[in-house]
Amino acid sequence: MEEYAREAVERLTTRPAEPYETLSVSPITPLLGAEVSGIDLSRELTPQQEKEIKHAFLTHHVLAFRDQDITPEEHKRFASLFGDLHPVSLPAEGSDPYILEIRADRDSRMVAGNGWHADGTADPEPSLGSLLHITTVPEGGSGGDTLFANMHLAYELLSPAFRSFLDGLTAVHDGAMPWKTAGQTPPPEYDVPRNEHPVVVRHPDTGRRLLFVNGPYTSHIPQLSGQESEALLALLYRHIAATPLLHCRVRWQPKTLVLWDNRCVQHHAIWDYFPHTRHGRRIAVSGTRPRA
Ligand code: SIN
């Protein structure tokens, strides 16, 4: 491993012990994700529990809470601790405007999020994070895991010279792209978002830099020729997908809730359970404009 990469990993693996009084926080890997226990999300949290969860969220970026028997209202109440709820972009008629049903079964032709991405990055203010509560796991109890990748580390594992080059670039994110990829056109009522964000942004709470491009939404880098932009994005996506050091994997059980920081992780829902059913509800929290 290169010296700059060793330093980046060492910074995370030699963190001081975390000061939790009410929670038990067990890292999934030393570099991303944690299982959190000792908390019942169906109850209102105490200020100390809230403080500890927010600390764990900024430290580990992906938090898994097991055995959470929560109603949609309790799910929303927990989500709203992190900010305003982010409305679903195309809610089904009569559905709750803040709850996205995540469902795949025998009739599915595709599933949401089956590829590395961050949510809604074509929006001017992509979501802060999402909270997915899975209620039905595939029959047999395995399959349907979700992978997460740490975009801070994705940036920090690049060489300093390459990072400096990326620091000066922006990228266009186009909400029409996922529709085109699926061979569909967006419905007329959908006001398709298209926004330019820096390729390298700072996390709004920690100031730490991270890589902010993703396959489904990033169309091109306007400072480069078409060929250069395509090659650079392909290199970055390969780096994200082919570097296991960046990843953690969550294996769902019924009533697991996972909260992830959409500002600094990408995720990938694995569809390895066809024709079985997986079902849950996702609520997102509103974010802010990404800044360099
Ligand atoms: C998504 O939010 O992209 C879906 C995640 C999942 O189903 O695990």
Order of H and E elements: HEEHEHEEEEHHEHEEEEHEEEE
Which CATH C-level class is it? Alpha Beta
Structural class: alpha+beta
Averaging pLDDT over every residue, what do you get?
96
CATH architecture assignment name: 4-Layer Sandwich
Total E-strand runs:
16
Our count of helices gives 7
Shape: globular
**Ligands (ions, cofactors included):** succinic acid
The CATH superfamily is identified as: Clavaminate synthase-like
Q: Characterize the main sheet.
A: 8 strands, mixed
Are there runs of 5+ residues with pLDDT below 50, and where? none
Fill in the CATH topology: Double-stranded beta-helix
Rg over CA atoms, rounded to whole Å, is: 19 Å
- Give the N-to-C terminal Cα separation: 27 Å
Quote the beta fraction: 25-35%
Q: Indicate the percent of residues in helices.
A: 10-25%
What count of structural domains?
A: 1
What secondary-structure arrangement, pairings included, does this model have?
Elements: H1 3-13, E1 24-27, E2 34-37, H2 47-60, E3 62-65, H3 72-79, E4 85-86, E5 100-104, E6 129-136, E7 146-150, H4 151-156, H5 160-167, E8 170-174, H6 177-181, E9 194-198, E10 200-202, E11 209-211, E12 218-220, H7 226-241, E13 247-250, E14 256-261, E15 265-269, E16 278-285
Parallel strand pairs: 2-3
Antiparallel strand pairs: 1-2, 3-14, 4-16, 5-16, 6-14, 6-16, 7-13, 7-15, 8-9, 8-12, 10-11
Bound molecules: succinic acid (SIN).
The site of succinic acid (SIN) has 9 residues, from strand 6 and strand 15.
